[in-house]
């Protein structure tokens, strides 16, 4: 039965750990994405709040992490890539802050990190 408490464990782990998507304020006005690849080649998922759709899709191949993050317009959040290297967001090289994070606005973003 899906009513058992243990049945939500995999959903939680996949959403918040593997995808790394977490809402950090009510309805997702702010959010964070910090995926853990855990040796997987790819992952995809998301969920919806009254503000709209929050989704993450990523794939690892040949030392490159490629991802798409979709969040509602008018929200904002942060990304902590799962690997170190040159981060490209929507075709532009972005610098990470001292915590290894970049700030993003809501909307759809194409991301990639090439290991150095």
DSSP strand content = over 45%
Described by strand count, sense and barrel closure, the largest sheet is:
8 strands, mixed
* Helical proportion, percent range: under 10%
Q: From the helix content, strand content and strand pairing, which structural class follows?
A: mainly beta
Using the CA coordinates, give the radius of gyration. Answer: 14 Å
- Unreliably modeled segments: none
- Tally of strands: 8
Shape verdict: globular
Question: Helix tally?
Answer: 1
The topology string of helices and strands comes to HEEEEEEEE
What is the averaged pLDDT score? 89
Q: How widely separated are the two ends?
A: 47 Å
Could you name the key traits of this structure?
single chain, globular
Topology, pairings included?
Elements: H1 9-18, E1 21-23, E2 30-33, E3 42-49, E4 52-61, E5 64-79, E6 86-89, E7 92-94, E8 102-114
Parallel strand pairs: 2-5
Antiparallel strand pairs: 1-2, 3-4, 4-5, 5-8, 6-7, 6-8
Task: Describe this structure as you would to a colleague.
The chain is mainly β. It has one helix and eight strands. The protein has one helix at residues 9-18; strands spanning 21-23, 30-33, 42-49, 52-61, 64-79, 86-89, 92-94, 102-114. Strands 1, 2, 3, 4, 5, 6, 7 and 8 form an eight-stranded mixed sheet that branches. A hairpin with a 2-residue loop joins strand 4 (52-61) and strand 5 (64-79). It is globular and about 40 Å long.
């Amino acid at each position: 039965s899906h009513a058992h408490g243990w049945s939500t464990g995999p959903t939680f782990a996949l959403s918040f750990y593997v995808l790394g998507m977490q809402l950090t304020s009510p309805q997702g006005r702010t959010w964070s994405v910090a995926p853990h690849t855990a040796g997987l080649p790819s992952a995809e998922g998301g969920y919806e709040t009254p503000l709209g759709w929050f989704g993450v899709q990523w794939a690892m191949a040949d030392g490159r992490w490629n991802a798409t993050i979709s969040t509602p317009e008018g929200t904002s959040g942060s990304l902590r890539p799962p690997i170190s290297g040159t981060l490209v967001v929507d075709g532009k090289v972005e610098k990470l802050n001292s915590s290894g994070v970049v700030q993003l606005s809501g909307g759809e973003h194409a991301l990639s990190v090439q290991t150095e």
